[in-house]
Amino acid sequence: MPRSMNRDTLLYGALDLPWWGYVAAALALTHVTIVAVTLFLHRCQTHRALELHPAASHFFRFWLWLTTGMKTREWVAVHRKHHARVETADDPHSPQVAGIHRVLWGGLFLYRKEAAVRDTLERYGEGAPDDWLERNLYSRFACLGIALMAAIDLALFGLLPGTAIFLCQMAWIPFWAAGVINGVGHFGGYRNWPTEDASRNIVPWAILIGGEELHNNHHAYPTSAKLSIRWFELDIGWMYLRILELVGLARIRRVAPAPRFVPPRPVADVDNLHAIILHRYDVLARYHRAMKRIGAGQREALRTMIAMRAELASLWSRSMASRDQLVRKLQDWCQRAEASGIQPLMEFSQRLRSYG
Questions:
Q1: Alpha helix positions (H), the chain
Q2: Which backbone phi and psi does 214 adopt, to 5 degrees?
Q3: pLDDT in tens, 18-40
Q4: Is-contact 145 69, C-beta < 8 A?
Q5: Is 78 exposed, middle or buried (0-12, 13-18, 19+ CB in 10 A)?
Q6: What pTM does this model have?
């Protein structure tokens, strides 16, 4: 409840809260920041998976200016480069390259180092806000927002609680986003999809970091506005997004495509090829499950499946092959798979011809 104005207001703040009230306030304020990062910076600005109403977009920009001082173009550019150069020496923050401890505890410094590279901003920062407010306030006076947030915290919560809440706000994104997501998200957890990188889903109930915990799902389908895919996964950011959509403040552009199956075609065709390429991670996941059915003593069968997996993956790798050539390649692959005598491979090939 509001505290009456007196000489102690400056020391104790305008709000008189129990200890748990200050904890709840800190969690609420940091959670709004997390939502701003995942919906505005990540899903909207970086990957264009959704469109936000100008009112919602500006609120998130203003809130991030207050609570982080981050510049939209820098965040967008660094994250896009991460996807483009993932797990290589050019990745701004790969624990596979830099080490888990350096990314987990020093992710903020890796981010700032990459954000200062002019070529990164020019190559990967295209499309970020560049209006009058961005040029003359948010980017020009990034620290002013943080100072204003500190003053608000002290005025509302008092000297000691306000300082603690402010420090929590300042550490929240550097630790959870720059450290945990970029570090643990490429180091430990479970994988739904056999992506070419080391991305992991940290936990299936993605609440604390706004849905970003489902990092392997995101790397498999980076332009999807929804990060949860399996029935047991929860993406709280998606829930917020649906609420914004319901009240007219957001429009969802893309979500991860769900495979559609038809009766197996006698022969693979162009539509089958396109469906396989679109759902390639689902195809590989099912292939891996088929490989697990090979017994320990069936070494030749396992070698055959490993070799044919590489051939299958070449269908969507970059090549100069024409569409017709790829269709013939797929047809030949299915014929050899079904003549192999390897039961899991034969059944998988029939399933492959069902992708619609």
A1: 9-12, 19-35, 54-67, 72-84, 95-98, 100-115, 118-124, 132-133, 142-157, 159-173, 182-183, 215-220, 236-246, 270-278, 280-291, 299-313, 323-338, 343-352
A2: -85, 65
A3: 999 999 999 999 999 999 999 99
A4: yes
A5: buried
A6: 0.87
